[in-house]
Design brief:
The protein is built from five helices and nine strands. By secondary structure, the chain is α+β, with helices and mostly antiparallel strands. The protein has one domain (2-186): Roll (3-methyladenine DNA Glycosylase, Chain A). The chain starts with 6 loop residues before the first strand and ends in a 10-residue tail after the last strand. The structure holds a DNA duplex (12 and 12 nucleotides).
Length: 197
DNA sequence: TGGCAGATTTTA
DNA sequence: AAAATCTGCCAA
């Protein structure tokens, strides 16, 4: 069916540096099948979190029960609960033993808009998936998705050939340390990013 | 546009 | 105990 068009990203996709992968993820489709519904969106905003020189990274102070997935193999989900209300979805990168990941901050809705609107309690397309907590609510991503292999199963990353050029690199959102590193990426002018500043 | 409450987990 | 990779609502 058209909404599932595209090939799942394989291990080889995760070979480069984490910032490079964060850029390469722009345009890919994140898809979640829940209760037979296909919920998906195109990735339009990412942030890289690094193991070296990046105190804002959850893994900066070594492995803990929460950040353990970051130290696992690449291409898996790292989902955590934050601020008492929200989930954040990350994609693990770097070889096993190295704690790095890419936070997905915004999607452009692709399929399952009606179901996503119901989950988000809004029909405003811009408010559906523009923000790390919002996209998790829209796609039904929660703790049960943690560590999922994103190349197979009900939570998938797909390549349908979409390429963005003119990618912007700017400082990340909501962090207090390493706040100057330009590790946040999005296509210039994209209307679905969480903030345009 | 800006400030703040909300509500829970994790870590120090 | 304090901070946390946030969001929605409300007042100006």
């Amino acid at each position: 069916m058209a909404s599932m068009k595209g090939k799942p990203l394989q291990m080889g996709f995760y070979n480069g540096s984490t910032p490079d992968i964060a850029v390469s993820l722009l345009g890919k489709v994140l898809l979640h099948i829940v209760d037979g519904n296909i919920l998906s969106g195109r990735i339009v905003e990412t942030e890289a979190y690094l193991s070296q020189g990046d105190p804002a990274c959850h893994a900066a102070r070594g492995m803990t029960p929460r950040n353990r997935p970051m130290f696992g193999p690449p291409g898996r989900a790292y989902v955590y609960f934050i601020y008492g209300n929200h989930f954040c979805f990350n994609i693990t990168t770097a070889p096993e033993g190295v704690g790095e990941a890419v936070l997905i901050r915004a999607l452009e809705p692709v399929s399952g808009r009606e179901e996503m609107s119901a989950r988000r309690n809004t029909s405003d397309g811009r408010l559906l998936c523009s923000g790390p907590g919002r996209l998790c609510q829209a796609l039904g991503i929660d703790r049960s998705c943690n560590q999922a292999d994103l190349s197979s199963g009900s939570l998938l990353l797909l390549d349908d050939g979409c390429i963005y050029d003119d990618i912007v690199a700017v400082p990340r959102i909501g962090i207090k340390t390493a706040a100057d590193l330009p590790l946040r990426f999005y296509p210039a002018g994209n209307q679905f990013v969480s903030r345009r500043t």
